[in-house]
Amino acid sequence: MKLFHASDTLIEKPDIFHSRHNLDFGVGFYLTRMEDQAVKYARRFTALGKTAYIHTYEFNLYPQFKTLTFDSYSADWLKFVCNCRSGEKDYAAFDIIEGGVANDKVFRTVELFMSGIYTAEQALQQLIYQKPNHQVCFVNQDAIDTCLEFIGCYKIKPEANGED
User: How is residue 163 annotated by DSSP?
Assistant: First the structure.
């Protein structure tokens, strides 16, 4: 299966050491199955005047790696994301985590839940209206080295007047 990663630098050999902390699924290397999602994310770099790249990797899962998959925005997904974003290391029990993205719209709901304004039920009720995005997070360097093969990358051109 092909996975995509947006960045402002070339990444032929990905690692977890350059990851930010307190992300949806913890510290790791994040990719998506959805090329258009990666392109939209890359536009954040071009909007800042930076070069943006879309990297393509071939992903092959091997049985020695422990995975966690969230098929939808669920109570388990919500709890896991909140814990990771709060600095908990729930992700450390896994090698690869897959599920929905807490993008800008979704994260507003997550924040309202984390602050106690929404109950879990209210947050999940709001999330059913969100178009799901997709992410795969590699939290183990051995999983990256074993399961991902760099295929290539291409540059994203800055949008001209809001159009491709």
Answer: B
**Spatial distance between the Cα atoms of 15 and 121, rounded to a whole number of angstroms:** 36
Structure tokens at 19: 């990851």
pTM for the whole thing?
Answer: 0.89
The answer to whether residues 133 and 40 touch, using CB atoms and an 8 Å cutoff, is: no
CB–CB of 101/70 below 8 Å? no
Side chain identity at residue 17, one-letter code: F
**How confident is residue 129, by pLDDT bands cut at 50, 70 and 90?**
confident
Which string of DSSP letters, residue by residue, matches 47-68?
HTT--EEEEEEEE---TTS-EE
pLDDT over 60 at 62, yes or no: yes
Q: Which residue would you say has higher pLDDT here, 132 or 111?
A: 111
